[in-house]
Amino acid sequence: MSLKVKIFFKTATIACGKKEAQQLLEVGLLMPSGALLAAIVDNGSMPSSDGDQKNIKLIAGPLVKLSTDGLSLLSTQPGYPTLVREDNETTLRITISLEPLFLISKDAWTAKMSLYPSADPDSLPECSTILEMLKNEGVCWGVREKNIATALATMEADNLPQKNHIVARGRLPVNGENARLRLAFSTAPQSGKVQGDGRIDYRERRLFIGVDQGQLLATKVKATPGIPGVDIFGREVSPVPGKDLFFKPGPDILCDLDTGEIRAAFAGVLSVINENNVKVSAKHVISGDIDFHTGNIDSRDAVDISGTVKPGFKVTTGGDVVIGGNVEAANVDSRANVVLRGGILGEKALVQAAGDVDLNFSEGGSVFSRGSTIIRREVYFSTIQSLGDIICQKESRVVASDLYAGGSISVFQVDTDSSPNSLLAAATDPLRYERYLKLLKNLHLAHARIEKWHRHFGPGARNEGLEELEEELSDARSELLPFNLVPVSSEHDKTGGLRYACKQKISIRGWIQAGALIRIGNAETTLQNNYGKGYFALNSDTDKIEFHGAAT
User: Fold this and answer.
1) CA-CA distances (angstroms) from residue 107 to 144, 169, 332, 491?
2) In 3D, which of 247, 189, 254 has the Cα closest to residue 221?
3) How does pLDDT run across 195-226, given as a tens digit for each residue?
4) Bridge partners of 547?
């Protein structure tokens, strides 16, 4: 008996693309899951008398399986097979691999499709065929038939491969809302709410609000459980329930656990921190500057300073702080909100707040707020970090500065023709971003050490030292790849927080110069052109940042 290998698919090298930019590409027919790709068969002839019949060995590459009898190769999912033939005096080795039609993410949120042209135009699959293949893979929810049809039409028109088209996407769960406070009165905060015409509502925050003993301050609204999602296999995905707010009776507030009411324990002034915490304190008034005459200020109360905080001095408060002048190379730290009637001057100037920060300008200084930051005039060569939003008033300017917001960013003018470029990062946890830069640096150093080794020993050499360096590179890459910058989800789950990130925007109400670095969540891009009025947002289908121009 004489054996041979029978191949059940065809491949050909064709010219793809338009005539002016054609490229040669080896293509094969699209094979369904479970298709027979190759088999060892009897060719029906007698073996030669000298007994030179070769051994035939079938080898299963990626996404291909060998039959139990070892005589055939079958596809494990739909895709495009490729063949490698190794022939020597005694053995014929046939290796078949498969490039998948569908790439399903490990978390089952998305299915992406890659199509390739065919040597036979009549053999291109129909949309219905691909839908059936997708169904056979178990994908039954969020199928995007329009995307499949568009990819097929584009491939037929351009004669080019169509890669990574989203053909199914699950519905992310809607996480529960955290418990919150419903205030019993209006503080008229600078909420930065976008109006219908694109303007921002800037209202002065009412600070030092007087309250009486026993007065109702707020009522707690309970957390919600959220709405379940569903993955592309139709499986329910549980939401993250909202977090509760816990209040304990203290020296300044009285809490009724049954009704959720919070009242003032004594008469004083009220501080509202990030809309989810309240405290009552006395008011400490300081006329003039913070300098050698006053020394550093460390107060549990709200503090009203009429002058400037001079270089080298520090102001620490338990309640709100209002500074009538500037912060000059000094440090201000409030466990509530900070309002600067002036601004920040000098690289050593630092303003920190557990709530919001409101300032006119910053020249070389730094701000960190756990709430939002409001900029009323300009920011030059500064770093602004907020766990909430960053809101710049109309006609304000941001030049050569880094802005990090856990929420959205609204700016007017960014950079000039001659200035260094700014960084605007929305839906980005500022503290995580610092760790992200360290992980990125570790990866670059690992690459550099391997390149240095190859320069010393040569590109083809290997030893234990190289293996250790490659292991370091693998560890650095494995730490960086899943790292997540979106603040509402785990920092080790890069797929988390996508719905939140897609809701955040970087709004431009004037213009922004080319060269600025734009980041939303885990996506980043450097602007190649100047942009006018509009906003940048994250596209959930492509995971890329897109600009949406303002309607004219």
Assistant:
1) 18, 11, 44, 16
2) 247
3) 433 344 445 566 788 899 999 999 999 999 99
4) 536
